[in-house]
Amino acid sequence: MTDPVDINRRNWDERAAIHARDTTGDYMLERFRAGEDALHAIEAAELGDIAGKRVLHLQCHIGRDTLCLVRRGAIATGLDFSPAALDVARRLSEETGLKADFVEGTVDQAPVLTPGPFDLVFTTWGAICWLPDMKDWAKVIASVLAPGGELYFADAHPSFLAMEETAGRLVPTYDFQTPADRPLPFANETTYTGDPTIMSHQSTREWIHSLSAVLGGLIDAGLTITMFREHEVLPWRGLPSLVPASERLWRLADGAPRMPLSYSVRARKGS
User: Fold this and answer.
1) Is 227 helix (H, G, I), strand (E, B) or coil?
2) Are 208 and 195 in contact (CB under 8 A)?
3) Can you tell me the distance from the alpha carbon of 147 to that of 122, in angstroms, rounded to the nearest whole number?
4) What is the CATH number of the domain that holds 89?
5) 178: containing domain
6) Whole-number Å distance between alpha carbons of 193 and 26
7) Phi-psi region of 34 (alpha: psi -120 to 50; beta: other; left: phi over 0)
């Protein structure tokens, strides 16, 4: 098997069952079922009022954040390429009574499968590393947005993604921009939640995208950047040296040189 999409789909299908069990509480599913908001502090602070808005959540995985948007009053659709993840999302929707549409497909299929138009496209945290080309990504977003509609996006910063940790020090290891035809091969025995289950499909293919690729792609697609922020926190422990910043955010330890670990963007389609 050489197709990156197939390789990654097998990996995410297997992760879905592990994440649905949520034995470590990383996805805080029981707390979410009990009514607690599961969005991280960054997007929760920046998202604003979405009541009544038609929202497309790209790469929605098991749908928890999609249903968070519904709980905030949105009319939400989640798109993901993993059928196993969408099975979990639909069960979670039934369990909570939060209604959303969940559609199986890749991001590039969105203009056909979920054409909208939408008032908001929402995509966050560990999303674009699975996509080869930001120009194509941005064109998809522009095509499904209604006039005046917006993108909200947040993810790990490419400056941080280019690093690995060696003897407690961050060392530049990867290029800040991965060629579309040469994804980075990784293999991890377990998923990122701390669950010790050993996966059968451990291989993934991933890309690092520069800020210029992301922002330039959105601009070239006709969108106007209305917000760009860099953050010194990340919603997962991306490297062992990170320390808790709050309950669900991580930061570099005191004394380490400051650098952005994540960033967020809003972009608007013209009316």
Assistant:
1) strand
2) no
3) 16
4) 3.40.50.150
5) 4-269
6) 6
7) alpha
Phi, psi of 83 (to 5 degrees): -65, -35
Q: How many Cβ atoms sit within 10 Å of the Cβ of residue 25?
A: 11
Strand intervals (E) in the chain: 54-58, 75-80, 101-104, 118-124, 145-156, 163-166, 169-172, 184-187, 203-206, 223-231, 243-246, 249-251, 262-269
145 in Cβ contact with 122 (< 8 Å): no
The one-digit pLDDT tens for each residue of the chain (271 residues) are 589 999 999 999 999 999 999 999 999 999 999 999 999 999 999 999 999 999 999 999 999 999 999 999 999 999 999 999 999 999 999 999 999 999 999 999 999 999 999 999 999 999 999 999 999 999 999 999 999 999 999 999 999 999 999 988 899 999 999 999 999 999 999 999 999 999 999 999 999 999 999 999 999 999 999 999 999 999 999 999 999 999 899 999 999 999 999 999 999 999 8
Hey, what amino acid is at 188?
A: N
C-alpha 88/C-alpha 22 separation (Å) is 12
State the total domains in the chain: 1
